[in-house]
Amino acid sequence: MTLWRLWGITGLALIGVGVASYLTYEKFTGGGLICLGGSQGCEIVQNSPYSQIGPIPVATLGLVGYLIFLVVTALQMRASSVESRRLLAGLNFGLALGAFLYSLYLTYLELFVIYAICTWCVISALVVTLILILATWELVALSRATQEAPELHG
């Protein structure tokens, strides 16, 4: 079993945890965001009505999502059967696809509604995109392994 894709997802999720933790901290403390590139885009996006769903900051949802990626990926690494790994890979893929689509929506809001770009948000969107690529690759590889060696089920 090759683990490099799972380690890749883990590393990317840790980057995501860092970004989302920083944005969550700044949202709750009201501190001034340090926006990479020197623009005020991060402050504008962070203070927009789209930065929260009800009382919950979008960054906090991102933090929870990245932590879930870490848990699911760790479980996948420890799974004893190909079928269990494939099920967890499917879960990771579904989560990554949902996160990717939501990131696309948020990017649309930044570009066409808020008219500001948050560099941290762009980094998070890139991280999610890379996680989706690795999660898709992992799911396809495990699906092929299951089809090629059906005796490995269970």
From TrEMBL:
Keyword Transmembrane tagged: yes
Cellular localization per UniProt: Membrane
Keyword set includes Translocase: no
Segments passing through the bilayer: 7-25, 56-75, 87-106, 112-135
Molecular function terms from GO: oxidoreductase activity; quinone binding
InterPro entries, per database record: VKOR, VKOR/LTO1, VKOR_sf
Top-level lineage group: Bacteria
Lipid bilayer topology: Multi-pass membrane protein
Main localization (coarse): membrane
Keywords: Disulfide bond, Membrane, Oxidoreductase, Quinone, Redox-active center, Transmembrane, Transmembrane helix
Pfam families from the UniProt entry: VKOR
A GO-annotated cellular component: membrane
Domain Vitamin K epoxide reductase, first and last residues per copy: 2-139
Similarity-based family: Belongs to the VKOR family.
Database matches in PANTHER family: VITAMIN K EPOXIDE REDUCTASE DOMAIN-CONTAINING PROTEIN, VKC DOMAIN-CONTAINING PROTEIN
The protein's name in its UniProt record: Hypothetical conserved protein
Species this protein is from: Acetithermum autotrophicum
Native organism taxonomy: Bacteria, Candidatus Bipolaricaulota, Candidatus Acetithermum
